[in-house]
Amino acid sequence: MEIIKGTILLLFVLSLFSLFSFKAPNGMKAMGALANTAVASFLVEAFQLYVGGDLIGMPFLKEVGQSAGSLGGVAH
Question: Which PANTHER family has this protein been placed in (predicted)?
Answer without folding.
Answer: MEMBRANE PROTEIN, MEMBRANE PROTEIN-RELATED
